[in-house]
Structure formats: structure tokens, C-alpha cells
Amino acid sequence: MLRWLFEAELHVLGSTILWREVVGNGFGLASAVLGMRRRVWAWPVGMAGNLLLLTVFLGAVFATPQQVDLYGQAGRQVFFFAVSAYGFWRWHRGEVDGGAAVLPRWASARERLALGAVAAAGVALAYVVLRALGSWGPLADAWILVGSLLATYGMARGLIEFWLVWVAVDLVGVPLLVAAGFYPSALLYGVYGAFCLVGLRAWVRVRRDLDAAATAAAPLPAGAP
């Protein structure tokens, strides 16, 4: 079964697509749905997809129809796996709000400034490394790598802004993956972009409801009627 999954191909309109790319992205979409619902299983499901996609983006190491190395895409699967382990631990510690594992919140000004600085420095460093490794499209690949890690970290922390970071990643990822011939991944990036807007709306609504409940429960000031 594992050998079939590793070698199986799908032929669409003259293009060869690996089933493990399709299945890996399917796990990724399932993880996103569970993340929107704030369920702790979002993390292990996503980790399974990371392992499959790692083999897809290293065309020179594993047999792929594209024979193109996207080291940033491959590297982010490794980092995803590590950050997802942290996310699973953090969400698993306290399942609250009817089984949800995290309470969404907006990042503070200090957190936004820190994340912006990390993004700028991370992209600059990743670009140099990926270009030296011979990655295809190193600048776009660098942003996808760094932006994806920041979005995953933000999700683990329950920051609502992580949805917006994902949208920015998808806007770069779709044209890069189409140009490289990874059509299932490009298609899913487009689906992710639309889904992230739905997820953003859902988390904003939860935060608004939490704030309204906290305001209603707050004691009245002394002397108030």
C-alpha cells in the first residue's frame, strides 16, 4: 500500500501528477478545516501531510515528474512538523469553549512589530540560503517558507492575524507552483486563500462574542444605577 502511494500517478490533460501530492494536500486542507474549528486534531493531520509533501518537493531526491527542487517548500514541511508538534502540545493543554482548543485573540502591537521584524530578516536569510542551494524561484520560495512558519506559529498562539499571513503566502504560492508544474498544490493554495478568509471571519466572530460576554459579565462601577 505504501509503495503504491509513493509511486502512483494521475494523468490529467497531458500532465503527470503524483497521488501523494494530492493526498498530502488533502491532509493539509483537512488540517485547515480542523484549525478553523479550533480542534487539536488539526496538528497531527497536518503533520501527516507534511511528511508526504516533503517527498514531493525534493524532485532530485525522490522520483517526481517535475524533477524540480523547491527547497523552501521542502524545508517548510520539516519546520511545519516541528512547529506543529508545539501547536499540538499547546492546544492539547486546555480544550475549552465546548471542545475548542484555543481562544482567538488579536496580536498586541509589540507582537506585530516582532513578527514583522522576524519576517523581514527571515526572508532575507532564506533567500540567500535557497539561492545558494539552487532552489527554483528563491525569493518567492523564501517568503512562502518564512510566511508559512509565522502563520503556523500564530495559529498555535491563537493569533487571529495568522489567517491574513496565510492569504499573503497563498498569493505568492499559486503563481510559483503553477510555473513549476505542481498543479494540485497550486490549486489547493487557491482554495486555501479563499478558505482563510472564511476562517478569519469565523475567528473574528468568536473573539467578538468572547468580548461581548466578558463585557456583559463585568461588574457595574460603584454608584452605577
Could you explain how this protein is built, in words?
With 225 residues, the protein is mainly alpha-helical. The radius of gyration is 19 Å and the shape is globular. Helix 2 (19-36) runs antiparallel to helix 3 (42-56), helix 4 (71-92) runs parallel beside helix 6 and helix 5 packs antiparallel against helix 6. A hairpin with a 2-residue loop joins strand 1 and strand 2 (15-18). The protein has helices spanning 2-7, 19-36, 42-56, 71-92, 109-133, 138-157, 162-180, 183-217, and strands at residues 9-12, 15-18.
Main pleated sheet: 2 strands, antiparallel
Which whole number gives the mean pLDDT?
81
Query: How many individual helices?
Result: 8
Query: What amount of the residues lies in strands?
Result: under 5%
- What percent of residues adopt helix (DSSP H or I)? over 70%
Order of helices and strands: HEEHHHHHHH
The low-pLDDT segments are none
Describe the structure concisely for a colleague:
The chain has eight helices and two strands.
Name a few traits of the molecule.
single chain, globular, mainly alpha, two-stranded antiparallel sheet
Write the layout of secondary structure elements.
Blueprint: H1 2-7, E1 9-12, E2 15-18, H2 19-36, H3 42-56, H4 71-92, H5 109-133, H6 138-157, H7 162-180, H8 183-217
Antiparallel strand pairs: 1-2
Helix pairs in contact: 2-3, 2-8, 3-4, 4-6, 5-6, 6-7, 7-8
